[in-house]
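Hi everyone, sorry if this is the wrong subforum. Our group has a chain we'd like a structural model of before ordering constructs, and none of us has done structure prediction before. Sequence below.
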Amino acid sequence: MKTTNPIAALFGRSPFKPIQAHMRVVLECVAEVPGIFQAVVDGDQAKLEAQKNLIFEKEQAADEIKNQLRGHLPKSLMMPVDRRDLLDVLAMQDSIADTAQDIAGMLVERRMEVPEGMAEPLMALVHRCLDTCNAAGKIIEELDELLEMGFRGREANQVEEMVAKLNVIEDETDELGMQLTRSLFAQEDSMSAVSVMFWYQLIQWIGDLADYAEKVGDRLRLLIAR
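Answer:
Right subforum, don't worry. Here is the predicted structure as tokens:
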């Protein structure tokens, strides 16, 4: 009898299809983050609320896939990949969506004003972190080819190169984040201590989007190494 469960159906075609399906929704979620920061820059409260709702909806959709995947992931997989490794990849992907939700929640719950001179570098950081997430997504899309080649050969080398490029982008986000933090601290005398604290936390969370994306790539590199 054919299963009506979409996750189980995905497993029937490939053990990696559900991981890829989850990552696609995660990327849809994080793709809304630049829009919510632009709404803050523009002082557009209606747009801010709308973007927050989109992010929350996508995060919930990612959670649903994650929970189904965990419930249907076979205890033993007839392939050169450990179940725990797949769960680690899933956890890192999910952390990207969770962080996007944290960012959206703070921006709505506490009305934030962008400090003077920080709008442009703020948006540059946000977009570069999104680039990192998208780079991780492209690597996840290579999982089927990796499996077909037994995690060896030309495909494995290509993924190694993709992970290396992802690491370079993430390094760039670190530098952008430090520059933005220095700009924030340069203005702390003219801001309330609470505002400085919240903006510092937001900058950290934006950087976390790239950090978790990098960890997705690093875990795939470990799969190849094994």
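For your construct planning: Residues 188 and 197 are 10 Å apart (CA to CA). The mean pLDDT is 88.
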